[in-house]
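Pilot study result, target chain (270 residues):
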Amino acid sequence: MSVIELSPTQNVLNQVWSTLQDEAKEFAEAERALSSLFYATILNQESYGRALARHLSEKLATPEVSALHLRKLFLDIYREDDSIVEAAAQDIIAVRERDPACTSYLQCFFYFKGFSALQTYRVANGFWKHDRKIMAYHLQNRSTELFGVDIHPAADFGSGIMLDHADGLVAGETSRVGNGCSILHGVTLGGTGKAHMDRHPKIGKNVLIGAGAKILGNIKVGDGARIASGSVVLKDVMANCTVAGVPAIPVGSKCCENPASEMNQILVDE
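Predicted structure:
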């Protein structure tokens, strides 16, 4: 019998799903009051994608749009584009590795609203790409209501992203965020003026954006850059550069290669 080689993506999905199931079993035993939730959402599901679809649909349902209906729609989108579920696996790993308050995949999956908001955006983006824009807007609105996160469904977010706390995050229609970024609460990726054009920031890979930072206009933030909390960024930021202030200017020495992973927000000269 020939051996089937798994791709790195499949290995990641399998690892995340297996760990999530193990944690669900453990916590269902330890916390009996929540056992039915863990069984229905994870242990009785066939895959990470199905578990994610069930969880999000239960969160986002309204009296007018049932969880059952949403779950079917989400699964259809996942089948059309399996990169959505793959990105969700990378996202949960990112949170587990970077957030010291996160002790398990299960904790992130159920209770971290930044993760839930990001996965809601990913589904909305799938609907947007299939020209189902009203459904995309509906999900964007529900995410804003439930999680305090407003990401336009046309925005382009990579994978392995952590939205830490996430309250007050706004990302405009033509904003782009590269793989591996960490973004804290109160961040704005905004436009200037009202022209209908490419008007929002382009964030590179492995960028750390501190709480309350405002990045405005069609500007570029290079790979591995670090934006200090409370900064207002109005000009391009070079790769591996730290900027701070209003308006933001370069400060300190060269940043580490991956500030999004390090999560170090203390600005010191080295």
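One observation from the pilot: The domain at 155-270 is CATH 2.160.10.10 (UDP N-Acetylglucosamine Acyltransferase; domain 1). A full batch analysis is planned for the follow-on phase.
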